[in-house]
Amino acid sequence: MSVYKDENTGAWFCIFRYKDFSGKTIQKKKKGFRTKREAKDYEVEFQRKVSGKSDMLFESLVELYLADCKVHHRPNVYRIEEIHIGHIILPYFGKFHVKDITAATVRSWQNDILIPNYKYASIKTYNGHLTGIFNYGMRYCGLTENPVMQAGPLRYPEMNDKTPIRFWTREQFEYFLSFVKKPSLRLAFETLFWTGMRNGELMGLRICDIDLEHKEIHIVQNRVRIAAAGCPEVIQAPKTRSSRRVVGITDKLAEEFKAYLDSLYKPEPTDLIFQTKASSLTILFNRYQKLRNITPHIRLHDLRHSHASMLINLGISPKAVADRLGHSNESMVMKIYGHLYPEKRNEIVDKLNTFA
Hints:
By secondary structure, this protein is mainly alpha-helical. The protein has helices at residues 36-51, 58-72, 75-93, 103-117, 120-140, 147-151, 170-177, 183-195, 199-203, 251-262, 278-291, 302-313, 318-325, 330-337, 345-353, and strands at residues 3-5, 12-19, 25-33, 210-211, 216-219, 222-225, 233-236, 245-248. Helix 2 runs antiparallel to helix 3 (75-93), helix 8 (183-195) crosses helix 12 and helix 13 (318-325) crosses helix 14 (330-337). It is elongated, with a radius of gyration of 27 Å.
């Protein structure tokens, strides 16, 4: 018998043995159960989980999946996925046995929970999380099929509707900047607009990352906030390998950096240039727009889109735009900004007219 009652407290506990991934036998003890049945159920489910059997509860599969994600994903990415799974996926599937989740079960979740309540981008994200959980189960827990893949692609009338990219022209940005007086804020907004770097990349810039002699910025780290109350911002590697890059800057921006850095009191090379929180920068950006009734209203991230659209209007190739923005290839640029490139239809018609 592996379940016992603590005569001092009246609570139940279980003691049992299991084999870990290496085949080593380990003794497990778990206390604090109200009933004998709860203690026994815990032991049974634990044995299912460590053996990777498909009759384990879905919440046990999620526990294994998230433990793996915590090791292999960046902290902010892991935390966001943990929140999404906990709020959207576990309440529906948690108490199902994995073997009982079919394509029809998944389709019901999509039709009842996702499509009526969430927008296109969120639906893709949550559905992707569920796909990832079952892919993990197939690779490491012996599952033979992924019910999300069997359920087929998601389609409904608004799935192809995308929010148009918002951006400012140089004139619109200069008008906005005319109301910003604080030097550090001006420099932050100018850097985003004239380099197209990501917000986290901006917040991770150190003094030693600015090469004023060659007029370059070396992007080597990222500063982000973990998506949890009270969690501090963390410094981590750039988003992707291609995000680690060198970005050339204009003479004017180089002068702005020199003037600002010269105004600092005994700075250290490794000091962050922008000390404010990333969330505070977003709040201030929105506040300036609201106070001055600036239109069109854009997000802070849209300064990156503004830079990309400016490069495109200057005739810069998709490959060069991708390199500057830190995208892995030009296909991403065409996916996001392809509609901004000049249409070739008139050019084709003009050439055909020469033969008419």
